[in-house]
Model the fold of this input.
Amino acid sequence: MASELARVANDGLAEICRKYPHVFPSFVAALPLNDVEGGIKEMDRAIGSLGARGVQLFTNVAGKPLSASEFRPIFRRMAEYDLPVFIHPMRGPNFPDYAAEKASEDEVWFSFGWPYETTACMARLIYSGLFDELPQAKIISHHMGGMIPYFPAKIKLGFRQIFYGTVERNPVAEERRLKKPPLDYFKMLYADTALGGEDAPTRCGHAFFGTSHCLFATDAPFDPERGRALIADTLKGVQALGLAEKEMNLIFAGNAQRLLKL
Amino acid sequence: MASELARVANDGLAEICRKYPHVFPSFVAALPLNDVEGGIKEMDRAIGSLGARGVQLFTNVAGKPLSASEFRPIFRRMAEYDLPVFIHPMRGPNFPDYAAEKASEDEVWFSFGWPYETTACMARLIYSGLFDELPQAKIISHHMGGMIPYFPAKIKLGFRQIFYGTVERNPVAEERRLKKPPLDYFKMLYADTALGGEDAPTRCGHAFFGTSHCLFATDAPFDPERGRALIADTLKGVQALGLAEKEMNLIFAGNAQRLLKL
Done:
């Protein structure tokens, strides 16, 4: 069922790309993850026959973390293709924020739960050794890396590190046998600029990931004006970085062209 | 039991302040929240007799949100005193990040769960109408407001607002009968600068809260050098804001002196 839905979705996206190649030069494929082998077959079909240049996964698979070893073949195969994995958050109001409650209220699950999901997913992928195994893996974290750029200090200083480590030695990273300091791996991630165009956050995200790891994106059409506000605002937010034209063009197009081999 | 522990803690802090008044001009009191009436008695004793100039609460009370109506008398009484409520995150590894798991792994509960807790707590307090009822309430959110300064766009554009609202109309805020746009209330919060001294995040937090709502703090002694690194780094981070000396002094001392009536 999931396999069939993914096929229908990918066929549809491929058709749109064939019809409007000047607007949609390519697409990223959906994969059924309840069947990893089937997911890889669909990946091969979408990339090999339909012209997809990446895949989009969600931060969890029916509640399981993407870092689970059963999903690692997906990342391995994408690293072989040398094409990016886009990771989007997935969480609903049924994920409570308080132990005494059964649901998340006031849309906290969306406003802040989504960036939290993205962040937890990236942390778990990193601590699972993803980048030691696949240093060429290209992971694109939506919404400018979730919480990562605002909390490099929390990445640099773990909880047990405070009490049992040193400035250089993080006990959890050692247990996980990571080869580099955790922060180095977080800097290997890519991020899109979908932060609603806010100046200071966009600058904070850019400071963390750097020009070469930022890709323009907007979250359109998801605003009450069918995306017009998000596109205009995000353009302004990226322009407000005040970068040289050449650098700006990398964020708007060059980095995506490079990663997606367009 | 909680009442007795709070009394012992507050007596101890008061004693330290009496012994070293040039270093510790005052303290903020711990309150037992399993007994709100007893909590208010301890608040009155700590502020009235011991010289406390605020209270410190945690983001949840045994799993219940601070926004629950049973805790509102605490906020009301603190507003009468016109003294600040400091709110610190509280979450352990027993709070899982994935529906299929029983615990949080790789210290995600700490590194990112704490700022998420702070953010969820602030959102719930705001949507519960705290600032409409008590516009003079002074709430200090630790760690530069958690995720708030990186995600003003997510505060401005709620989930149902995308589909059923307009740029101005947020259905959840309307259901909660908030008098102002949600973002206006988030701007009423105060924040401390405990972000480990990272330049870009500190600038992002300052851009959101403004000089008058930022108070210097460091998380010392919680680093492997007993706080020396955190103090030095955070000083540098705040100085890197490049503010005029008068503004800088507000963050380092003036704002705290004003809020704590020192």
